[in-house]
């Protein structure tokens, strides 16, 4: 049994590595071509930008790579009658799938570690490169790791407690104005800031002016104040994208913070649970591949098996994406949105396998 387990493990691992390298290269090549024809960036910038996304591409291609590896492995064993040989010595499909699922589970754990530890720093590097090198915004700076959000633009530094992109309302806003020598000139603090057709309007805050001629700064209170800045809600919406650069524990703290500020957290909660559920989708893909790759009649061979699996996978991703969208809108709970598609398809495949074993 040890020799057989080593043989199946080696065969599956080889097929998985080949599959993920091929799929990642295709995804990488497609992304470069798409940006090359649709964006006004140099080839070097596009290559660097997408190279920083390679780790993310690998994570995204892991589920279909597991699907492909499972189909190819089991189909090849069935086509060469090695499955029948295994059955003849008392090793059934259950033992074979236990070996493969054990490897897939380790891949899932590695994927989760990559999402939590590897992807966030690469995403931050990619975002910084995009804004500073590709967009030529050398003053761009954004940090979500602290208790508040820090956003720098030109001679202004913004400190935000939370930003709700749906209502264009900022809770807990401070604006620091600096001179050319990077000396603090003015600080405006407000409990809330909202954006309308006339621009930003600050509510219930203070203005502190620092003057070189005075020993002490002058502070005045206001109930309502217009703020003339170049940033619009579209600029602050970059904060939402930067959530991808947070680790799971950092994202949880960020969600708790904006929940305390009264902002909508449904989209962030869906993203939090999706990061975890996405890591275990390879298990679902592996289970889905079993009924297609262990049929006794080899009509169409591996090509037909792969086409059927890819069709099922397409509907799975459609179902999964729809669930996340419904969760972000609040139609279903974030946990259900992230996990139900996987549980649903895994239940169908498991029921099919159980029915086949009972025949």
Q: How would a textbook summarize the main sheet?
A: 7 strands, antiparallel
Q: What distance separates the N and C termini?
A: 26 Å
Low-confidence stretches: none
Indicate the mean pLDDT.
83
Please bin the fraction of helical residues.
55-70%
Taking all Cα atoms into account, the compactness measure Rg is: 26 Å
Helix and strand composition category:
alpha+beta
Percent strand equals 15-25%
Placed side by side, the strands forming the largest sheet appear as 1-2-3-4-5-6-7
SSE order in H/E notation? HHHHHEEEEEEEHHHHHHH
Shape: elongated
User: Number of DSSP helices?
Assistant: 12
The strand count comes to 7
Description of the structure:
The protein is an alpha+beta fold and 359 residues long. Helices cover 62% and strands 17% of the residues. The protein has 12 helices and 7 strands. Strands 1-2-3-4-5-6-7 form a 7-stranded antiparallel sheet, with no helix packed on it. Helix 3 (54-79) runs parallel beside helix 10 (281-293). The longest helix has 42 residues, at 93-134. It is elongated, with a radius of gyration of 26 Å. The model has no long low-confidence stretch (mean pLDDT 83).
């Amino acid at each position: 049994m040890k020799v057989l387990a080593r043989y199946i493990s080696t065969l599956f691992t080889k097929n998985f590595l080949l599959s993920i390298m091929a799929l990642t290269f295709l995804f990488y090549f497609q992304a470069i071509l798409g940006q090359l024809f649709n964006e006004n960036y140099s080839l070097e910038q596009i290559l660097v930008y997408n190279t920083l996304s390679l780790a993310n591409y690998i994570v995204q291609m892991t589920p279909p790579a597991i699907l492909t590896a499972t189909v190819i492995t089991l189909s090849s064993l069935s086509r060469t009658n090695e499955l029948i040989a295994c059955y003849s010595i008392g090793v059934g499909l259950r033992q074979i799938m236990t070996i493969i699922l054990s490897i897939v589970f380790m891949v899932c754990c590695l994927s989760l570690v990559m999402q939590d530890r590897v992807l966030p720093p690469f995403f931050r590097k990619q975002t910084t490169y995009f804004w500073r090198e590709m967009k030529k915004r050398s003053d761009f700076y954004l940090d979500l790791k602290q208790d508040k959000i820090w956003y720098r633009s030109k001679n202004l530094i913004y400190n935000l407690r939370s930003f709700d992109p749906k209502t264009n309302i900022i809770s807990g806003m401070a604006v620091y104005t600096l001179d050319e020598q990077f000396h603090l000139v003015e600080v405006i603090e407000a409990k809330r800031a909202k954006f309308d057709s006339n621009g930003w309007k600050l509510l219930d805050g203070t203005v502190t002016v620092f003057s070189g001629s005075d020993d002490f700064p002058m502070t005045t209170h206001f109930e309502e104040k217009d703020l003339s800045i170049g940033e619009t809600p579209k600029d602050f919406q970059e904060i939402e994208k930067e959530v991808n650069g947070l680790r799971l524990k950092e994202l949880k703290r960020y969600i708790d913070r904006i929940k305390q500020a009264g902002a909508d957290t449904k989209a962030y909660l869906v993203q939090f649970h999706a990061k975890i559920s996405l890591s275990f989708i390879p298990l679902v893909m592996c289970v889905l591949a079993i009924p297609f790759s262990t049929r006794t009649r080899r009509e169409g061979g591996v090509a037909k098996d792969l086409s059927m699996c890819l069709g099922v996978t397409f509907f799975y991703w459609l179902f999964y994406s729809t669930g996340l969208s419904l969760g972000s809108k609040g139609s279903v709970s974030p946990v259900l949105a992230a996990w139900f598609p996987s549980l649903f398809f895994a239940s169908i495949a498991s029921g099919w396998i159980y029915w086949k074993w009972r025949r």
